Amino acid sequence: MDNITTAKRAEILMCALPYIQKYANKIVVIKYGGNAMINEELKHAVMGDIALLSLINIKVVLVHGGGPEISTMLTRVGKKSEFVNGLRVTDRETADIVQMVLAGKVNKSLVSLLGTIGCKAIGLSGMDGQMITSSPMNSHLGYVGTVDKIDPAPILDVLEKGYVPVISTLGTDDKGNTYNINADTAAAHIAGALGAECLISMTDISGLLRDVNDPDSLISKVTPEDAEKLKEEGIISGGMIPKVDCCLEALEKGVKKVFIIDGRIMHATLIELLTDEGIGTMFTN
Predict the structure, then answer these.
(1) Domain residue spans in the chain?
(2) Which residue among the candidates 33, 65, 66, 67 is catalytic per the annotation?
(3) CA 207 from chain center: how many Å?
(4) What pLDDT, in 10s, does the model give residues 58-117?
(5) Digit-coded pLDDT (tens) for 5-43
(6) Is 34 a catalytic residue?
(7) What average pLDDT does this structure show over 247-262?
(8) CATH architecture, range 23-284
(9) Which of 33, 128, 192, 243 is flagged as catalytic?
(10) DSSP code of 8?
(11) CA-CA distances (angstroms) from residue 247 to 82, 194, 227?
(12) Burial of 34 (0-12, 13-18, 19+ CB in 10 A)
C-alpha cells in the first residue's frame, strides 16, 4: 500500500462507492471460522474488515465457531474429542466446556479485539434471550442441537444501538440445557431470521471447485438447481454437502445472496463485497 499514489487510493475508493451504497443500512451476516480464526494476522485483518464495514454504515453480524479452541480445552482437562460426520459428540461435561470456551474465551476475545480498533461490539450467545431455541439432533451426539427457532430481537436491539453483534453458536431449550450448534447451520438460520442482504461463509477453501485439485476450476455462481446437478455429478460431495445445504437453506429463508469465500486471503470480505471481481462462490436464486 505504501507504493500506491494518492490518486490511485482515491480511485480505489470511488470504485467501491457503488457497493458501499448497495449495502448501506443492510444487514450482512459473516460466519467466521477456519484458519482465519487461528492465524493472528488473518484474525486482525478480518476484524479490521468488520470495523470498516461498520463505519460505512453496513450492519454486520458476526457469527463464530471455535472448534480448535474447544479441542484444546478438552485435551487440557483430559477429555478425548470424538466426531461423527464432522460433528463433535457432546456429553453434558463437554457441553459445559463448549459454553465456557465459545461464550467466554472466544467470544469475548473477538469483542475485545474489535474494541481495540475502534469498533463497538457486544458479545452474545444463542442462549441470550433464548435467541436460538434448540433440541437434540440425535441421541448418539448428545447435546449437539438443531436450530428449532431463532428470535432475532436481541440481535436487532444491539444493531439499533450501533454495536456489532458477535454471536457464539450455542442453543438452549425450555429446560435450560446447553446445545452445541454447527456454526454454518446457525449462521444460515440467523441470516434468514434477520432478512439479511447476504451471508458470507469464511472457509479454508477458495469456494466451490469443479475439480478439487484445480484451484482455477472455481465455480463463481450457483443456483439451487445448479447445486442439485453438481451433487448428482459428485462435484459437491463429502464435507461440502452440509456446507452447501446451509447456503441453500439461507436462500430458502429469504437471504438474497450467500458467498463461500477463502478466509485465508487477507481482506477477503472486502474483496467480495466491495469490488467487481469477488473471490468465491456466490449462491443466489
Answers:
(1) 23-284
(2) 67
(3) 14
(4) 999 999 998 889 999 999 999 988 888 778 899 999 999 999 999 999 999 999 999 999
(5) 888 778 878 888 988 999 999 999 999 987 778 889 999
(6) yes
(7) 95
(8) 3-Layer(aba) Sandwich (3.40)
(9) 243
(10) H
(11) 26, 15, 10
(12) buried
